Amino acid sequence: MALYQLLSFVLGLGLEQLVQWRYGAMGLACLLLIGIGVRARNSACLTTAAVLFVLLMTQA
């Protein structure tokens, strides 16, 4: 269990750094909204984050 938590933590940090490097602070905000939406089961957060992330990806 501890190994799984460690691997997920390292993978999460790596993903955050990759998104921030590629898409900047707005990409990090989208990841944060996705995380909040999944944990709270809030579809409004998930939808907003998905739309913003798609808009960021089309600009780059």
List the helices and strands and how they pair.
Elements: H1 2-40, H2 43-59
Structure, explained:
The chain has 60 residues and is mostly helical. It has one domain. Helix content is 93%, strand content 0%. The protein has two helices and no strands. The protein has helices spanning 2-40, 43-59. α1 (2-40) crosses α2. The chain is flat. The model has no long low-confidence stretch (mean pLDDT 84).
What attributes does this structure have?
membrane, transmembrane, mainly alpha, 2 helices, 0% strand, transmembrane helix, 60 residues
Describe the structure concisely:
The chain is mainly alpha-helical and 60 residues long. The protein contains two helices and no strands.
First-to-last CA distance: 38 Å
Tally of contiguous helical segments: 2
The biggest beta sheet reads: none
Specify Rg, calculated over alpha carbons.
Answer: 13 Å
Q: What percent of the residues sit in helical stretches (DSSP H or I)?
A: over 70%
Report strand %: under 5%
Question: What general form does the structure show?
Answer: flat
Low-confidence stretches: none
Overall mean confidence score, pLDDT: 84
Q: Order of SSEs, N→C?
A: HH
Q: Kindly give the count of domains.
A: 1
The assigned structural class equals: mainly alpha
Overall number of strands: 0
